[in-house]
Amino acid sequence: MTRLGVVVNPTAGKGRGTAAGRRTHELLRGRGHDVVDLSASSLALATDRARTAALEGLDALVVVGGDGMVHLGVNVVAGTGVPLGIVAAGTGNDIARTLELPKPGEVDTSVARIEHGLLVGPRRVDAVRVGPPGTAAHEWYLGVLSCGFDAAINARANEMTWPKGSLRYVRALLTELPTFAPYGYRVTLDDRVWESTGTLVAVANAPWIGGGLKIAPDAVVDDGQLDVVVAGPFSKGGVVKIFPGIYGGKHVGHPSVDVFRSTSVLIEPLTSLGHLPPAAFADGERVGPLPLRVTVVPGALPVLC
Q: Could you tell me which of 21, 63, 243, 245 has the fewest CB atoms within 10 Å of its CB?
């Protein structure tokens, strides 16, 4: 009998997670799996329960929710060999979009994909390790690390309950814009160093952030490379002008935007050039302040998709 751990975010998608979680449990148990409910009242407690269960022995971990739940799952199983199943039920669902998984509400199809992955074997994708340089402390992410104005917008959007999806990102941008001032960076890549006053630094393993903003159009989740998107100084008006183009990835054609490829990235604040950058976010979750070392680990995450 296959032993599956399931973690549900009941608040995902304005409560959609509750129904999706109930249906996921029902389908998996009905098909003969031993299902262990690892959901909890907080993200931290659910993470602890999932890690304990993984150590005791799981054939897979299944998360039901949005990108935050995927982030939890990645941090539990990356590098362990335990595969991750995803039932999308959030508002952004950037990771599900990247992996071409069924949309929220398509729970039966999602569970069928998970069972197929258990039968034929998972797809291995890259995961990204991030933490303070010179220490062993780190966490994992699967999508995009943001540590510029995009991170400030992310922090603001996390405080909002309306509207949903990428529209919340737009509202957060308009709220943050009046106090925006360019930041100072030193970004050290495999083959170059970028030092500049800047607006945005995003280290992408996948294309999307913010519920459908195509921040790194050419990022591929299993190519062993990171797409590092950097933007030089923009005025407030320049930010407003370039923002709509991010939906289609058109911003990368702007002369002040560069995209580099690297397997490792060191991002440091350089306050002699600009303001202190905001704390970084990855997969929409807060990681912490700069400096940070970011390293891609090819094939570190088996996914049931």
A: 245
Select from 207, 199, 195, 200 the least CA-distant residue to 266.
Answer: 195
**Count of structural domains within the chain:** 2
Q: How many CB atoms lie within 10 A of CB 268?
A: 16
For residue 292, give the CATH number of its domain: 2.60.200.40
Q: Give the other-Cβ count within 10 Å of 161's Cβ.
A: 7
What is the average pLDDT score of the chain? 93
pLDDT in tens, 190-243: 999 999 999 999 999 999 998 889 999 999 999 999 999 999 999 888 888 888
- Asked whether the bond before 244 is cis by omega within 30 degrees of 0, the reply is no
Predicted TM-score of the model (pTM)? 0.93
Write out the two tokens for 233: 């100084």
Kindly state whether residue 287 falls inside one of the protein's structural domains.
Answer: yes
User: Residue 154: which domain range?
Assistant: 130-299
CA 18 to CA 39: how far, in whole Å? 11
